[in-house]
C-alpha cells in the first residue's frame, strides 16, 4: 500500500497460517449484518454480512488474564494512531513500557499499526482496541496485552467497512454443551474454509 501516510510494505503471509487469511465464509448467527463478532478461542474476527455469510479475519488476542469479553461499540476510529501504554502495562513491565509512558508516534513500528478501532462501553473507553500490527507472526496467537491484533492490510479493510457505533461482540469461550442450541431450534455458527477474497 504505497499511498498510505507511511507506505506500507506487503505482508509476508508465509508467516501466517492459511486459516487466518481474510476470506468470506458461511456464517449463521442471530447478529444482524454489520456486527463484529470476535471468536477469541478460535482466533477469528467476523464481520457479519447478509445472506448467511461473514468476512472472516485472523487475529491475535490477549494473553491469559488480559482478555476482553462481552459487548462494546466502536467509539472512535483512528488512522495511523499514536500509542500510549496503559498504566497497567507499565506496572506489569516497567522496564519495557516505562520509557514509552509519554507515547509513541505513528509509524510502521508503532504497536497499533495502521488503524485502530477503540472499544467503548456506556460511552467510556475500555482501553481495548482492534488494531493493526507489524508482527504478522503474532496472528493466531495469544500474546497481546488484551487488544485484538490484525494484519495491517486487514485492519485497513475492516476500518473502511465499519462506522463508529458498530456493535462488537467478544466471545471468550465455547458455549457449554448444556447451553448449545439444537440444530432444529436455531442457527448455529459455522465457518467453512472457502477463500473467496483476494488479499
UniProtKB/TrEMBL annotation:
Pathway listed: Cell wall biogenesis; peptidoglycan biosynthesis
SUPFAM superfamilies: L,D-transpeptidase catalytic domain-like
Pfam families the record matches: YkuD
Classification via Gene3D superfamilies: L,D-transpeptidase catalytic domain-like
Domain (L,D-TPase catalytic) ranges: 34-171
Record-linked InterPro entries: LD-transpeptidase, LD_TPept_cat_dom, Transpep_catalytic_dom
Leader sequence segment: none
Alphabetically ordered keywords of this record: Cell shape, Cell wall biogenesis/degradation, Glycosyltransferase, Hydrolase, Lipoprotein, Peptidoglycan synthesis, Transferase
Catalytic residues, chain numbering: 131, 147
Family the entry assigns: Belongs to the YkuD family.
Protein name: Lipoprotein-anchoring transpeptidase ErfK/SrfK
Source organism of the structure: Sinorhizobium kostiense
Amino acid at each position: 500500500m504505497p499511498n498510505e501516510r507511511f507506505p506500507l510494505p506487503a505482508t509476508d503471509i508465509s508467516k501466517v497460517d492459511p486459516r487466518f487469511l481474510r476470506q468470506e465464509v458461511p456464517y449463521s448467527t442471530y447478529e444482524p449484518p454489520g456486527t463484529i463478532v470476535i471468536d477469541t478461542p478460535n482466533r477469528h474476527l467476523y464481520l457479519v454480512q447478509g445472506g448467511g455469510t461473514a468476512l472472516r479475519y485472523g487475529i491475535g488476542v490477549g494473553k491469559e488474564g488480559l482478555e476482553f469479553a462481552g459487548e462494546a461499540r466502536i467509539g472512535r476510529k483512528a488512522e495511523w494512531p499514536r500509542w500510549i501504554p496503559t498504566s497497567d502495562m507499565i506496572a506489569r513491565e516497567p522496564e519495557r513500557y516505562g520509557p514509552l509512558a509519554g507515547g509513541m508516534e505513528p509509524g510502521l513500528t508503532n504497536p497499533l499499526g495502521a488503524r485502530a478501532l477503540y472499544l467503548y462501553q456506556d460511552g467510556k473507553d475500555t482501553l481495548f482496541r482492534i488494531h493493526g500490527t507489524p508482527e504478522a507472526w503474532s496472528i493466531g496467537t495469544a500474546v497481546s496485552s488484551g487488544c485484538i491484533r490484525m494484519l495491517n492490510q486487514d485492519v485497513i479493510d475492516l476500518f473502511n467497512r465499519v462506522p463508529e457505533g458498530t456493535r462488537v461482540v467478544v466471545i471468550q469461550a465455547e458455549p457449554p454443551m448444556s447451553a448449545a442450541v439444537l440444530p432444529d431450534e436455531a442457527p448455529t455458527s459455522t465457518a467453512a474454509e472457502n477463500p473467496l477474497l483476494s488479499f
